[in-house]
Amino acid sequence: MKLDTESSVPLYKQLKDIIKRDISNGIYKHGQKIPSEVEFQESYNISRITIRKALQELTDEKILERRRGKGTYVADVKLERSISTLMSFTEVCEAQNLKPGGRIIKCILEEPTETDRQEMGLKEGEKMVTIERVRYADSVPVSVEMSQFTEKYSFLLGENLNDCSLFELLEKKYGIKFQNYVAVLELVFADKEMSCYLDVPVKCPLLLVTSSNYDQDGAFAFRCQQYIVGTRFKFMV
């Protein structure tokens, strides 16, 4: 794509918009190195000063990041949310103009252990619904969610939960809202399975958020373990 030298839009702004569009379209992915100043100069026949201004503004906006001696890279995904507010992953992404996604790992009805039964308040003979998903922000894996619902939620087994907001589905289709939750945070390290799902090295530090979630009537609904890549998520207290 060529820059319009006759346009009233400054050339650095045109280049900046092109780079942002290429990131949005997946031409440059998060964590990927973008062309050098020399390569941009050859492609668009513009001055290094113009290129540096465009790159600096994108760096100031945290869209790009400079790595000393290595070049300029698309900044990694960094989600932010308040630990004290119950928000869905989709809401967190959309609030930061990121595209949410999800891929089902497991969605089954299974027998609970005695510990599961006690923690979830399950009756004798009652089963639990287990749903496990990898969650993505702009196609970058951010977390693995492992949720266990009471058997009341077995209708979820018939839903397509890929690239879906579970909270939105339950509210809009079934009239169920979650209003209260209790969360515990701790530091863990990625095992081989988590490293594959999250595309991180084995033993990479992860945030484990364990929560108990209740519906609008105060009834226990599900518990969830979220294994979150610490470099891609930030909690605010």
Descriptive report:
The protein has seven helices and ten strands. 27% of the residues lie in helices and 34% in strands. It is of the alpha+beta class. Strand 8 and strand 9 form a beta hairpin. Helix 1 (11-24) packs across helix 3. It has a six-stranded antiparallel beta sheet. A two-stranded antiparallel sheet has the order 1-2. It has a two-stranded parallel ribbon with strand order 3-10. It starts with 10 loop residues before the first helix and ends with a strand.
What is the arithmetic mean of pLDDT? 90
Largest sheet, in brief, is: 6 strands, antiparallel
Strand adjacency order, main sheet:
4-5-6-9-8-7
- Quickly give the structural class: alpha+beta
Low-confidence stretches: none
Beta-strand fraction estimate: 25-35%
Report the order of strands and helices: HHHEEEHEHEEHEHEEE
Q: How many DSSP H or I helices?
A: 7
Shape: elongated
Distance between the termini: 44 Å
**Radius of gyration, rounded?**
22 Å
How many strand segments? 10
Helical residues, percent: 25-40%
Write the layout of secondary structure elements.
Layout lengths: L10 H14 L12 H8 L3 H13 L3 E4 L3 E4 L4 E4 L6 H7 L4 E11 L3 H7 L7 E10 L2 E11 L15 H9 L3 E12 L2 H7 L6 E11 L4 E10 L3 E4 L1
Parallel strand pairs: 3-10
Antiparallel strand pairs: 1-2, 4-5, 5-6, 6-9, 7-8, 8-9
What's the quick description here?
The protein is an alpha+beta fold. It contains 7 helices and 10 strands.
Q: What are the defining features of this structure?
A:
six-stranded antiparallel beta sheet; alpha+beta; 27% helix
